Amino acid sequence: MIFRGWTRLGIAGAVGACLFAAVGTSAQTVRRVAQSDVTVRSVPVVVELFTAQGCGGCPEANQRVETLADRPGVIVLTYPVDYWDYTGWTDTLAQPEFSARQQEYRQALRLRAVATPQVILDGYRTVAPRDEDTLGLAVDEESARNLWGPEIEFRETGDRVGIGSGRVAAEGAEVLAVVFRPGPVLVRVESGDNRGRVVRHTNVVQSIHPIGEWTGRSILLSLPDDIEDGDRIAVLIQSRDDRHILGAAVR
User: Fold this and answer.
1) Three-state SS for 8?
2) Which of 28, 54, 79, 194 might form a disulfide with 84, Cβ 3.0–4.6 angstroms?
3) Cβ atoms 119, 137 nearer than 8 A
4) What angle do CA 148, 142, 246 make, to 5 degrees?
5) Are 65 and 132 in contact (CB under 8 A)?
């Protein structure tokens, strides 16, 4: 467990409505989902949580999402957003680019506003993490959805990743290397709605790196080299058209 109290980049923005050290493997083989009869597809289900230390309803949502992190065939990523800083507590893990990613989803999904906390499944489906059953059922449904993405293979040297061939829309897809710190991070909040609470996060994203374009043909891409010890990388192949995640793997 890690306690952090230092401040990262954060700029107060629009107000959202108050409403992931384990990660599923790259899951290129068929497996069974724990506590479910759903057969896992070849592509892991990507669970992206947008949360904030200043949001009163977020600590419970963080805990619910964390229950998914040990499930085979699931990749959980947590993005702390900065627009809750106006409440009097500057989020110690938030970055403006995470808030920008959530806004991109708002536009792609044609939502009226962003929400906090908010879960996006596979880049196209939003889920309000009200309880574990709601989240678990949604992930089961995604696991059962027929999706066969391109093969993703990390080179043994650790500095490159290969993307196989497959089908993609005319607009193509971008390949993202999402660097995250696996396992729990605990932060004591000293002011705002969660004053006096220790807020727990899991699989907190450190940075997002666009590393290339995928047009359906096999490619070999370089991975970012400024990764701190203990961090891991999730490679996401994300459609530019509708933001669907077409493939994912973790190193």
Assistant:
1) coil
2) 54
3) no
4) 35
5) no
Tokens 């724990």, residue? 34
Q: What is the pTM of this model?
A: 0.83
Contacts of 38 (CB under 8 A, 6+ apart): 32, 140, 143, 144
Query: Which residue, among 126, 133, 164, 132, has the nearest Cα to 148 in the 3D structure?
Result: 164
The label of the residue with tokens 């040990």 reads 70
Q: Which amino acid does the sequence have at 102? A: Q
Sequential pLDDT tens for the chain (251 residues): 443 333 333 333 333 444 433 333 333 333 333 444 444 567 899 999 999 999 999 999 999 999 999 999 999 999 999 999 998 999 999 999 999 999 999 999 999 999 999 999 999 999 988 777 889 999 999 999 877 889 999 998 889 999 999 988 888 999 999 999 999 999 999 998 999 999 999 999 999 999 999 999 999 999 998 889 999 999 999 999 899 999 999 99
Phi, psi of 65 (to 5 degrees): -65, -35
